[in-house]
């Protein structure tokens, strides 16, 4: 057996990683002081970086650049800028990425095949001069114990707090490896499609053919529970960098730890959704299969009427039932059961919603986090999607001019 | 050729129809005066009533009742109640409908195979006693010139105003017929799934095999432009009653007039969307086919980020582009063009969004109604979906306890 326990250090926790946040003046307005707006991760020994990108047809320029020039090569550097997505910018966008990357290589010969990642406004050309000027601030040793945290801060957009995590995995033979990560989200993700970025570092020594497969499997169970492939922003990215320096590896332990990393960050992203006050899990069980369970769970987590009812702490189970019925999955009112915050309100055709249960459920809904459980009673497909409520703050953030 | 012109009278404009709104005390709280909450339409000579219902798996009890007991029979009466959807109420819900319908027949022998339609909260049993007590107020002659308007008022829920329309069609040979209708909507429809009801009356003499077909074709072009089949409430209903008393008919003229009736009501429903301040048309052209155009147009009209940008009068075309790219239709950034309120902001890979155009587009967005036009430049599929903005008022209405 193996043991997994949380450690400090974020993306710099595994051996061989340097990260920091710097300022390129992207977030700066005339009256404000400089803020961190460009983050980077450097890995001492280059390796193939695994990546999963948005399914949006209009992939942003840095993604196009990665697929054209970096994929399948060994790389050791990721540069992440905020305030500008470099999306819908055509060939000029891609050549802007290339220019910034060439500037990096020219300045720092230790950088191999650098990767760029961007988040921010769509349809505006990259402020590449500002970014290139900031590159002088890059260092190749961690300056202090907070550099990983500055990197996580630098990639934030409307996020209210930085999102970091790290675990140490101790294998049965006493060997150990580490996984660290940082992410940004803050939009309500699907269906609002604010960009989700996640960068994972590890010193585990993963067989080359396994890394991408495990990454995909874990994304499916975590980030895809908060965001549908086809409904992503132009920039969504999950990347895994592996230094291999621990010389240790166990596929079951690694997958488990990676799942924990992503699960934590995915929940952080939902809980930090724009204007969100609550994290809600929608567990659908008893579906025809896992795909129908997923379809139904996501329909619930995306329903405007369900989201606003949650904001109002109203255990309005009729809206939940109606959303299930509209989600086009196999279901039957006489087999369906619905629990809100553990309180059974509808059971196989029977309405159990009396004043007492209503009060109880409403009290549960006032918590920061609770579950909505729907058993379709058809077969054994199961999926849990995470969502948040929708309140005034969401409208405020997104109706504000050019947020 | 034929002529179509608007007339007064709503659902009572065609010959042979009686309608009114009465009060069953459903909307009444102790302190308030009685409000109209039950509407009815009576047709002097029974005929087969055409109907299109929600695709929601959990169809409400009145729909189940219609399909079991009324469909294919001649009918002459529709009773519509508010405040209670009679949905998720199982067999008891259906037997409650039957009880109310039997009470109607017993009281009034002139009523044949009456139909019920409901809108309101889901998952609460029908207050059938209150409704049955109110049936004594039914009359079989129009009391005055406002009875059609009282019927339209009675079926309102969160609607801010009643939705009625009527047209007279004069054929080339001088014969004429009329179409009238009333509707309720007010939820933001898809994706929030508030119930949409529409009742249409006509004295045209439609060949039996044609009526249902024309009704379906017109729904596809109108109500389905504001609402996807699979994403409807438990109660959505469109019904067509035909008295045949005019003895006149022309299929092209009838279809045109019916389309005008539904188009008017569909736009009224969107413009009266909960908390809506603007009606926006999303015209997608140049799509691979009409289905892809529809998919893309609806994705735009449902995007939370697009809806909130519209509320904020922000011509944030990047959100529009990102939504198109995420909608999984065939598209290409180098072929796409986007116009907001007639202002071209992106043209086949070229970003035209300068300060002047931005200002111009933002000014257009301050209007009560404007178009977002996206030419995908692939082939000639075209569809226009209608949507509205999402502001604070929507959250207020829907977060209020048990709205």
UniProtKB/TrEMBL annotation, chains A, B:
Site description Involved in the stabilization of negative charge on the oxyanion by the formation of the oxyanion hole, residues in chain: 119-120
Keywords: Acyltransferase, Amino-acid biosynthesis, Arginine biosynthesis, Autocatalytic cleavage, Cytoplasm, Multifunctional enzyme, Transferase
Enzyme Commission numbers on file: 2.3.1.35, 2.3.1.1
Major site of localization recorded for this protein: cytoplasm
Pfam families, per the entry: ArgJ (PF01960)
Enzyme class: transferase
Function: Catalyzes two activities which are involved in the cyclic version of arginine biosynthesis: the synthesis of N-acetylglutamate from glutamate and acetyl-CoA as the acetyl donor, and of ornithine by transacetylation between N(2)-acetylornithine and glutamate.
Subunit annotation: Heterotetramer of two alpha and two beta chains.
HAMAP family in UniProt: ArgJ
NCBIfam families: ArgJ, PRK05388.1
Protein name (database record): Arginine biosynthesis bifunctional protein ArgJ
Organism this protein belongs to: Helicobacter anseris
Lineage, opening ranks: Bacteria, Pseudomonadati, Campylobacterota, Epsilonproteobacteria, Campylobacterales
Gene (UniProt): argJ
């Amino acid at each position: 057996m193996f043991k997994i326990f949380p450690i400090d250090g974020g993306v710099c926790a595994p051996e061989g990683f340097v990260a920091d946040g710097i300022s390129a003046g992207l977030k700066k307005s005339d009256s404000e002081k400089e803020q961190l707006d460009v983050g980077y991760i450097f890995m001492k020994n280059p390796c193939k970086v695994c990546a999963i990108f948005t399914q949006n047809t209009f992939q942003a320029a840095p993604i196009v650049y990665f697929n054209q020039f970096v994929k399948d090569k060994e790389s050791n550097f990721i540069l992440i800028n905020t305030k500008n997505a470099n999306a819908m910018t055509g060939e000029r966008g891609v050549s802007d990425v290339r220019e910034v990357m060439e500037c990096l290589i020219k300045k720092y010969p230790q950088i191999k095949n650098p990767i760029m990642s961007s988040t921010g406004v769509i349809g505006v050309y990259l402020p590449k001069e500002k970014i290139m000027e900031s590159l002088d601030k890059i260092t190749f040793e961690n300056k202090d114990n907070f550099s990983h945290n500055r990197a996580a801060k630098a990639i934030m957009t409307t996020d209210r707090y930085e999102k970091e995590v790290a675990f140490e995995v101790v294998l049965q033979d006493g060997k150990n490896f580490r996984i660290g990560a940082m992410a940004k989200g803050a939009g309500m993700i699907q269906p609002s499609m604010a960009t989700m970025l996640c960068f994972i570092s590890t010193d585990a020594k993963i067989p080359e053919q396994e890394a991408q497969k495990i990454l995909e499997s874990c994304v499916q169970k975590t980030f895809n529970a908060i965001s549908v492939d086809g409904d992503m922003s132009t920039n969504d990215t999950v990347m895994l960098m592996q230094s291999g320096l621990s010389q240790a590896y166990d596929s079951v332990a690694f997958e488990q730890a990676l799942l924990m990393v992503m699960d934590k960050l995915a929940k952080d992203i939902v809980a930090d959704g724009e204007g969100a006050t609550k994290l809600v899990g929608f567990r659908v069980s008893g579906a025809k299969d896992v795909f129908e369970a997923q379809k139904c769970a996501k329909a619930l987590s995306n329903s405007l009427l369900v989201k606003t009812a949650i904001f109002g702490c109203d255990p309005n189970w009729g809206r939940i039932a109606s959303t299930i019925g509209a989600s086009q999955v196999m279901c039957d009112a006489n087999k369906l059961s619905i629990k809100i915050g553990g309180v059974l309100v509808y059971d196989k055709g029977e309405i159990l919603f009396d004043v007492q249960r209503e009060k109880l459920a409403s009290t549960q809904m006032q918590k920061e986090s609770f579950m909505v459980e729907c058993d379709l009673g058809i077969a054994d497909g199961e999926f849990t999607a995470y969502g948040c409520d929708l309140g005034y703050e969401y409208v405020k953030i997104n109706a504000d001019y050019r947020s």
